[in-house]
Amino acid sequence: MKKQIFYHALSALFVGGFALSALSCAEDTMDNSTSDGDKEAIVRFDVSDAQDEALSNAPALTRGLLTSGLTDADLADRVLPIESNDNLDACVVESTIEGVNPTKADAATRANIINIQSLGEFSSAGMRGESDDKIQESWFSNERTESDGQLVKRIPWSWEKRHGIFYAVYPKVDDHKQNIKITAPTSNTAPTVDFTVYQDVKKQVDLMTACTGKVLYATRHQAPSTSLNFRHALTAIRFAVGPNLSFNKSIRYISIHKALLRGTYKMSNDLNGEGTWVAGSLKEPGTVTLSGLNYSTTEYPNSIIRDTQLGNDKYKNETDVKKIEDNYTFYMIPQELDNKDVELEVAFTDNTYIKVKLAGKWKAGTTRTYKISQKQSNWDYKLDCTPSVEVPYNGTEATIRVKSYRKVANNPSQSVAWKVVGYDANGDGTYTMTEKPAWLKGFTKDNGTGGEADEVIKANLATDVVDYLAERNRGLQNATPVGSSTQPYNLSNSNGAANVENTANCYVISGPGYYMIPLVYGNAIKNGATNEDAYKSKAGDNPVSINKAWHNVTLPVLCDHTGKGITNPWIEKTNGGANNNVNGAQLVWADDANLVNQNSLSIHRIGGNAFVKFEVTQAGIKSGNAVIAVKKGNTIVWSWHLWFAPKNAVDKITVTNKQGKQYHFTNETLGWKPTKWMATSYEDQRTVKVKVEQTVGNNGVKQASIIEIKQNAYIDRAGNTTLYQWGRKDAFPSANPALGPLYIQNAGDKIYMQVIIQNPGYFYTTVASNGRIQGESYLSQYYKFYNLWSTHNRSVGGSNDGNDNKVDKTIYDPSPVGFSVPASNAFTGFSESGMNESPLSVKGTTNEAEYNANGGHLFWTNTNKNATIYFPATGYREYTKGNMTSLHQSANYWTAIPHDFNDGCNMGFARTVILTRSSTTRTYGLAVRPVSE
């Protein structure tokens, strides 16, 4: 007699999901009722599976979801000692799972695991009555029922007896009359099943029961929905070759002795209820045997002991029980095993055997597997993997090779399964499955059967290249517009209100709108009050010999466009209102034609104070720079630099110099305008370590291997910045501006205080003879002051000579609000010793390719070298002609301290050299990297 098994439908307990529904998910909502005109409706059932329902509706698998009352102890693995007549170093490893390989299926695929042809028929019975509390009449019993829920004999509903309850038993009772006997239900009692286990395992059947609960025939001629939700009543038991078995024997038979083989099962009266085995009903201890075997213990580790005659060894090395369609499953009545002398016997063809006293408890609705293994085998386990693989930033595949096998002496090797068991993406040495990074999309397979031949797998990688220039410009254009033509946004106020809080010579604009700037000298208003420290010096006289004459190089009061010392922060109010009635505004230069709506430039007055007003359109804004000026008549009285950049351009990056002083630099160099910027979203090569482990090992110790997958970073960045002459507030372009009505590259050498204010677009040059500046030059005579960028400064610096003295920001400082040109020691941390021409303290950018790709250096911000700051290679404007030199090749950055009356102190670098403290002629056009005040 062929054993009845249901691997695709009802399933043996150890097999896949207990999925009995004969309908696809698309059909679940169909009206399955039967209406036959004036005829009575016909009884039929909607067949389903309790386990499948639970898995489909629960958010996650939970212990006891499928089988109530389960404890951790019920599911715990355990090693059982053996008795052997051959002194075998063996053991039996016991494991239990809840339900039938509980894998949650989604609604789209749940019906795909059903094969209605393999379900077979079952027996059903019904009770009925006139009311819900009088279901007393036996309606039908032991009726043959098709797998789709249709009774073979058509049984109609009665309108007079509309209340019913139905029961079902699988398999069909008539096929197993000696082993399955059912008592009829009564008005008070659900039916019981007297069940006897077949002693020949190959004849054993699974036992499943279901009850509809109370059902009402509510609409005449339309059969009600009547659901049968089947549940397992037995324990499924299967055997396997364990993971660490090295002796070579063949199994002849497997028996279980002294197990109780008969009992009474009481069914539930509820749709979702569980039946129970009646206490005291279990009896008839006996032996069940799976015989006629010839199964080698050298099969693949963890392979299920199965019928090797099926399909030309079609299940060789199979470890997934739900894929095996044979009749080697033991179906046993749930029972206590502790101290019951229930014994497992495994006999081999060489007349040796092992015997095991079973323990614990067999529970309904669970699968118990017993694996024959060894404590310490002679296997030599080998796991060899590709240790490291590196791919370019745009690489989408990494090829990995895995060998996993074991050998004993000179015998042929045996494949050992392997799997990925964890990831380490943060380098902490801890491997978890949850640490798999998103950029590692997956593998062509993350487990394998192993072998001495390479298993080749592919890691699928994401690529992540960002156009940061386009992103930057989109961010500016898509920012919420601010202000209006009648109420412009005040850039000197943190909220755009009319009252003036903090002023400067440079304002950052990060979105479209209508803006205004107060007509105030530089930073002459700070925290809403007059800031005299910005223009009145306390340095005192500081005489220096120039061209054989003594000159005071302290400017006591910084002057306005007429050369007079200012007396009031407001341009129109200084010197008794001498500059009153400023009446015009215009563009000096811009590096893009549409950054500022030139027609909108005008003077705007609020409560006696003057502002310059302008519009920035959504269509016109992009990363860039412009300089605007206000004038009285045709004379410019002051000007401002507008830097179109994201707000984070003035975020702070902390740098510690060699003297231990911390400077908080702006995130970007002043006036930074990228012209190209393509890069991966990650700055450094990204890496993940993947841990691969064999599924078995000697004495539980499994071989593991680490595979490191690396994806390189990428950057292609270049840009321009604004450049400055030492001591001036005026920004100059490092490329020819798109608009430059008042820009002159070489404005001659007659530089002095009044003329530079009146001509903010004039780049003044210096005549040198044999590289020397003559003492009678305008630079030496009239632009000699030491305190142009630090109000109270008297000190000087030079080659390897500087200080960390406080910089008192002046009205000539080009920096945005809250920042100033730095002190002369600010850059000493950028070389290893802090001195000139010492090795650069950079992150790889002395490499030519890295330097060119970045368009400059990535300097370490501290001695721990765990963070960087980007300094672009800005080039410079030459001091004798104003021409642009060395853009993207080298850079020089001003400090606030002079070297002497002709030169200012600066930091300079090329790819392989740095001068942390140097000096050069003041009329060079160099970059500025502000620091917080």
Gyration radius (Cα, Å) is: 44 Å
Helix content: under 10%
Number of helices: 6
Mean pLDDT score: 89
**Count of β-strands:** 60
Stretches with pLDDT under 50, minimum 5 residues: 1-38, 100-117
User: What is the straight-line distance between the termini?
Assistant: 94 Å
Envelope shape: elongated
Q: Mind summarizing the main beta sheet?
A: 9 strands, antiparallel
The fraction of residues in strands falls at 35-45%
Q: How does the helix and strand content classify structurally?
A: mainly beta
Detailed description of the structure:
This protein has 933 residues and is mainly beta. It is 4% helix and 37% strand. It has 6 helices and 60 strands. The strands form 17 sheets. Strands 3, 8, 9, 13, 14, 15, 16, 19 and 20 form a 9-stranded antiparallel sheet that branches. A 6-stranded mixed sheet has the order 1-11-10-7-5-6. The radius of gyration is 44 Å and the shape is elongated. The chain starts with 45 loop residues before the first strand and ends with a strand. 45% of the residues are buried. The model is unreliable at 1-38 and 100-117 (pLDDT under 50).
SSE layout:
Blueprint: E1 46-49, H1 50-57, H2 72-75, E2 78-80, E3 83-84, E4 90-98, E5 122-129, E6 135-145, E7 163-170, E8 180-182, E9 192-196, E10 208-216, E11 227-232, E12 235-241, E13 250-266, E14 276-277, E15 283-290, E16 295-296, E17 330-332, E18 335-336, E19 343-348, E20 353-357, E21 361-362, E22 366-374, E23 380-385, E24 388-391, E25 397-407, E26 414-415, E27 418-424, E28 440-443, E29 447-448, E30 451-461, E31 465-467, H3 468-478, E32 489-490, E33 506-509, E34 513-518, E35 525-526, E36 529-530, E37 543-546, E38 549-552, E39 584-590, E40 597-606, E41 609-616, E42 624-632, E43 635-644, E44 652-656, E45 662-666, E46 673-680, E47 686-698, E48 701-711, E49 715-720, H4 753-758, E50 768-769, E51 772-773, H5 778-782, E52 819-820, H6 848-854, E53 856-860, E54 868-872, E55 876-877, E56 884-885, E57 891-898, E58 903-909, E59 914-921, E60 931-932
Parallel strand pairs: 1-11, 12-22, 24-48, 32-34, 33-43
Antiparallel strand pairs: 2-4, 3-20, 4-22, 5-6, 5-7, 7-10, 8-9, 9-13, 10-11, 12-17, 13-14, 13-15, 13-16, 13-19, 18-21, 19-20, 23-25, 25-26, 25-30, 27-29, 27-47, 28-30, 31-46, 34-41, 35-36, 37-38, 39-42, 40-41, 42-43, 44-45, 46-49, 47-48, 50-51, 52-60, 53-54, 55-56, 57-58, 58-59
